[in-house]
Write a structure and sequence with these properties.
Layout (H helix, E strand, L loop, with lengths): L9 H7 L3 H15 L6 E9 L2 H18 L8 E14 L2 E10 L2 H16 L8 E6 L4
Antiparallel strand pairs: 1-3, 1-4, 2-3
Helix pairs in contact: 3-4
Length: 139
């Protein structure tokens, strides 16, 4: 028996039937359609602070910094997701927000995120905000 808050979720339904092959093919089709790995790449920048309003403002500023770091001729090749609360929005007395950048060229993604984070770090909102950067996060 499976206990879940999402009994109609396709992953839960396939797992209950032990139909892993069907789950794989559904998941791979979904990932291709919406541009998720392995068909594209994602870089997630996670921001942490003990004050929620500070981390929200920082995440907004970071998203802006990343957005303006995308070359004009490549705007359609990249998608910014967020800022948004992390899956676990508060952990160890710190609020957690994230900004994701999605695109097909991993080298360009890294350059854009590097430029955006650098710009963000020169701004006042970055003070005492911790960040972590993850390439193709698993969750």
């Amino acid at each position: 028996e499976i206990q879940t808050y999402s009994p109609r979720d396709r992953a839960v339904l396939r797992a209950a039937k032990q139909d892993y092959g069907a789950f794989f093919w559904e998941e791979i089709a979904y990932r291709k359609k919406f541009g998720y790995p392995p068909f594209a790449h994602i870089i997630r920048v996670m921001l942490f602070h003990t004050l929620e309003d500070r981390v929200i403002k920082a995440a907004q500023d970071l998203a802006y910094s990343i957005r303006v770091s995308i070359p004009a001729e490549k705007k359609d090749d990249y998608q910014i997701l967020g800022p948004a609360p992390a899956v676990l929005p508060k952990l160890k007395n710190e609020y957690r927000w994230q900004v994701l950048l999605k695109g097909k060229n991993p080298d360009c993604l890294r350059q854009i995120v590097h430029a955006g984070v650098k710009m963000f770090c020169h701004g006042s909102c970055s003070s005492q905000v911790k960040i972590s950067i993850e390439v193709n996060p698993l969750n």
